[in-house]
Amino acid sequence: MKLISSLALLIVFAFSALAQKPWTPAGMIKYNRLTGAIISPDGKNVAYTISVPQMEGEKSEFLTHIWMAATDGSSNHQFTFGEKSCTNPQFSPDGKWLSFTSARKEDKSQLYIISMTGGEAQQITKMKNDIEGYEWSPDGKQIAFLVKDPLTESEEKDNLEKRDMVVADDYRNVHLYTVAIKNNEEGTHPVKRLTSGNFHVTDLTWSRDSKTIAFTHQINPSLDQWTTSDISSIPADSGIVKSLVAGKGSDANPKYSHDGQWLAYSSDGGEVKWAERNTIYIIPATGGASKKLSATYDQSFQILDWSPDSKSILFSEVYKTNRVIYSLSIDGKPKMITPADGVYGSPSFSKSGDLMAYVYQNASTPPDVMVMNLKDLKSRKLSTVNEAFSKMRHAKTEVVSWKSKDGKYDIEGLITFPTDYQKGKKYPLVLNIHGGPAGVFTQNYTGASSVYPIQAFAQQGYAVLRANPRGSSGYGADFRQANFNDWGFGDYDDIMGGVDKLITDGIAHPDSLCVTGWSYGGYMTSMIITKTNRFKASMVGAGVTNLISFNGTADIPGFLPDYFGGEFWDRTDVYMKHSAMFGVKNVKTPTLIIHGEKDLRVPISQGQELYAALKKLDVKTQMVSYPRTPHGPQEPKFIQDIGERTINWFNEICRKQDEIKPVKLEKK
Questions:
Q1: What is the 8-class DSSP label of residue 585?
Q2: Higher pLDDT, 580 or 170
Q3: Which of 3, 275, 307, 383 has the CA that lies 20 to 30 A from 169?
Q4: What is the mean pLDDT of the chain?
Q5: CA 134 to chain centre
Q6: C-alpha 156, offset from chain centre
Q7: Are the beta carbons of 86 and 96 closer than 8 angstroms?
């Protein structure tokens, strides 16, 4: 009996050890990223992609390949292979072919098709630039796609001869093409250019009879010009572009109804705001008067498809800390299809409309591909992408709420408790602030690799608070626009209210507070340390620190004037009031500054300004820059390094517990 009991204890201990394997940035970077859930027209298969980190030797990248799962659960296997990524899978309308994009044979990403019965993939385009988006015609005879205009022969010659000067605002637009699925006598697939001229195409959709393509376009590729987006159509065999929607502001995301009678689209109705307030409209498919449908909860959505009977529109939207799928009747109100219990991403629908494939995750459940029967709302899990992660012990995450200081709003956030949390014991706190400012913290999986490795913070003994202050999405357009002309003040009070709540609740130790954020989260972090010395350590990630210099150097020069009601030369005092650099003399908090060297959204000079000032003020600081890195790190070695550096910075400065040792930076 003693022997049996001992063996049982050993087995329990072994499983317990597996479940308690420590979370670290080095372990979390091995997380496989899952995207897409494209269901076949007959509802029998779902294609999705898995991105696996490649970190051996000189490599620091993600390799993406397509996987295929049967909706009855009978199979799940990798579908494409090789040393080059294969992405953006789509099924042909008859379900016999799978298309995808890859640079497996060319320098640029091209279109390929492969038979569902197997065999070699066929390359069907050979463009000089990457395929940027595509869609099958409903009759399966063509694929429409988008490509940036190539360099001319003289421009290519100039580049080779080092005469490659860059003229500001000399844009290269994206235009619309089609390629035939059937090859010609020469064995190639004929490509036809449909659009040209001084406009930039951003998305497309086919009419159900395959005769017309509707597309969104703006005056040039500048990110500032989304406000000029309109919707037009063109015959699929080429012809004259016809304007369908050309109102003030942004009109985009067109989708034809299945009966061919209507075109749905998203519009701000001329109320141009970066913190958008959009509504779904419909017009006759050939153009005409528009009809405004009922408002959605958040008024910030993605139109997915129409119901098969063409009486409802399916869309995805954030609801508080969840992402859910809705149905909107053209004569009624929005209705939730999925529960508000996590994140339902990448939805797609079978031709009959009976099945929906999607990727589901919540704070403690890794993303996996699911399929739901929309008649009885029963779901089946189809993949096991991060099975090892799902077996690990997860620190608990809960939704927490508090009243704003001015009494106007109920503020929500997500708290992740320390791994070995004991009620009544106070813990060091990491306050993590999202970007945007119209971002939102949803119940995404906390074990995923990230510059903010939530489960690793919890393993190190931190509580982590992720607040959704005014200005966030997920709580309605009024809430999203409530921080106009008020960055760093009302939102500051909302965030600090959450910190105070955790202190009052006996969870957070008031003498061991850390703060961090990326982009607007970096902006708020830099503002916080000018307004209070309560935080013992901070990390500013790609943060905006000076609104005046930011507005003159960022790739979105219209962004701040929209939020602050004018240009900095007309509202200089306002820009200064809301900039950390003009309050930097107040900073006492040791600050780690992290920035990408190729960041066009928030140029690296923003981080350099803060770093130079803190050095002059004799505040403990360190700045780390990452080569090749745009606004968000894309290389797994860099993502791991940022997580490790942040933990070490906080451990060194923020906390006093001797039993927690800083994690080692892993070089392999």
A1: G
A2: 580
A3: 275
A4: 93
A5: 20
A6: 34
A7: no
Rg (CA), the chain: 26
Question: Which amino acid belongs to residue 439?
Answer: G
- Residues 422, 424, 425, 427, Cα dihedral to 10°: 90
Q: How far apart are CA 39 and CA 37, in angstroms?
A: 6
Are 451 and 639 contacting, i.e. CB atoms less than 8 angstroms apart?
yes
Q: Which two tokens stand for residue 481?
A: 């626009």
Instruction: Look at residue 660 in the predicted model and tell me its pLDDT.
Output: 47
**pLDDT single digits (tens) 120-157:** 999 999 999 999 999 999 999 999 999 999 988 888 89
Residue pLDDT, tens place only, 272-321: 999 999 999 999 999 999 999 999 999 999 999 999 999 999 999 999 99
| 668 has a pLDDT exceeding 50 | no
**Secondary structure of 14-42 in the HEC alphabet?**
HHHHHHCCCCCHHHHCCCCEEEEEEECCC
The SS3 of residue 616 is helix
Q: Is the pLDDT of residue 6 over 60?
A: no
Nearest to 642 by CA among 592, 575, 600: 592
Q: Which two tokens stand for residue 54?
A: 């490649």
Rounded Cα distance, 540 and 514, in Å: 11
Among candidates 358, 352, 359, which has minimal Cα distance to 375? 352
Give CA–CA dist 573/559, Å, rounded: 18
> pLDDT of 557-585, one tens digit each?
999 999 999 999 999 999 999 999 999 99
Domains of the chain from N-terminus onward: 124-257+268-277 (no CATH), 393-653 (3.40.50.1820)
- What tokens were used for 81? 């292979």
Q: Strand pairing of 76-78 and 61-70?
A: antiparallel
